[in-house]
Amino acid sequence: MNLHIQLFAGLVDLFGTAVLTISVDQDSMTIAQLKDKIITDYPAVSAQLSICFFAKNQAYAGDQETVSASDELALIPPVSGGQPSRYEITDSTIDVVSVTSKVNHPNHGASLAFIGTTREMTYGQRTVLLEYEAYVPMALKTMASIGEEIDAKWPGTLCAITHRLGKVAIAEASVVIAVSSPHRADCYDASRYAIERLKQIVPIWKKEIWEDGSEWKGNQTGPWNPLQAPQADN
């Protein structure tokens, strides 16, 4: 069967069409299966798809609802005024102000933005640029889990993380972590925790490209074990 899915706003630019047609060898499928099929056919859209909802016959549909060729389907991106995702992966330049705005809170007296940038010189070796890739669906989930850990350790503290993929030039930001809290001590601690935890568990890989070669870099802070619980504070 052929499923015709209406697209809106930025999704039209992303897919290059206003109506996406998905062909499958079955008479019906669940929304979850349809999402998986779209990601298989268009792997680059997995991050954007994770924050969208499907509509079936002009009503929002859950992952377990079944759809068929006779249904009117639409893929709905976040609407104007909706809450932006606090955890994002992007191929574009990161807007630090936009990330920081996600943790603004009237009862918080402190906020910090950590900006990780491409460094030119490392131990005497000149880096030309960095290149990042990620297992996007899992990366987004583990970023969100860092926010949950932070809320458990410092109740009420908010965290937002945006990480860049692809090529990142010297002095450009590869990651921005914004944190806000009622008190500055918690804010500083949570910000440090977020970047260290990101390097430990989020499946994002960095290639350092030099003038005379390149190398994929793994964990550089000791033995890597993403299943290990966070270390207790001293």
Automatic annotation (TrEMBL):
InterPro entries: Beta-grasp_dom_sf (IPR012675), MoaE_sf (IPR036563), Mopterin_biosynth_MoaE (IPR003448), Mopterin_synth/thiamin_S_b (IPR016155), ThiS/MoaD-like (IPR003749). Pfam families: MoaE (PF02391), ThiS (PF02597). Gene3D superfamilies: 3.10.20.30, Molybdopterin biosynthesis MoaE subunit (3.90.1170.40). This is Molybdopterin converting factor.
